[in-house]
Design a protein that fits this description.
Number of strands: 12
Number of domains: 2
CATH class of the largest domain: Mainly Beta
Number of helices: 2
Mean pLDDT: 80
CATH architecture of the largest domain: Sandwich
Length: 214
């Protein structure tokens, strides 16, 4: 009888240890920040096949499909309002904020995605150079995210950006989703140098290519 009791006690101890390890791994493992992906992007004013799109203010709209994905396998996430800013970069020296959108705060289960498909009215977009085959936009996302893990309930700032190239049909020029990456901004909000350099090189390349074609 004593042997059976000792065996049961040992089994209970092993199960308790395993459970404790699982709980610690689930609730105290450092969570991953959510990922943000632009699946669709359309700017009506840059659809050069539609003459009215550049003359009618009603067509000065921007459509986007933004996916917010919680990558964590065992942690839910909860978001503050998500601020999305759209900036138009007609050339290397100019950047204009043309629209903003706010996604209300929400909660998200583990391994789940949320798609935000919305149309926003811009402050006005005019093709800078019709000979250039694509235009560039910066999409900036700023929010705070917390997790259901007791150790990570305090919300941390998440700030990501991406540049989106839009062709002369007004659509983003790739069928693949465009992932937003850490902005690298400092506490004063600076930090787009590398991104702007990439944009500048893209615009310069477009101009050179079109000048050769011309």
């Amino acid at each position: 009888m004593g042997y059976v009791i000792r065996c049961r006690s040992f089994i209970i101890l092993v199960l308790a240890t395993i459970t404790t390890v699982i709980v610690v791994c689930v609730y105290y493992t450092t969570p991953s920040d959510p990922s943000f992906t632009i699946n669709d992007f359309y700017v009506s004013a840059l659809n050069l096949s539609d003459i009215s799109s550049t003359t009618t203010t009603a067509n000065q709209t921007l459509f986007f499909d933004l996916k917010l994905h919680n990558k964590n396998k065992a942690m839910g996430a909860f978001y503050d309002p998500v601020q999305v800013t759209f900036s138009y970069v007609p050339n290397i020296k100019l950047t204009f904020v043309v629209a903003e959108f706010t996604i209300p705060k929400f909660d998200q289960h583990s391994r789940r995605s949320k798609h935000v498909r919305e149309t926003v009215t811009t402050r006005g977009i005019v093709p800078y150079n019709r000979n250039v085959t694509s235009s560039v936009f910066i999409v900036d996302v700023l929010t705070k995210v917390g997790f259901t893990s007791p150790a990570y309930r305090k919300k941390g700032t998440v700030h990501v950006v991406a540049n989106v190239r839009v062709g002369q049909n007004g659509q983003k020029d790739t069928k693949k989703g465009i992932k937003l990456f850490d902005s690298g901004a400092d506490e004063f909000g600076h930090g787009y140098g590398g991104l702007k350099m990439q944009i500048g090189l893209l615009i310069l390349l477009e101009v050179l290519l079109n000048s050769r074609v011309g």
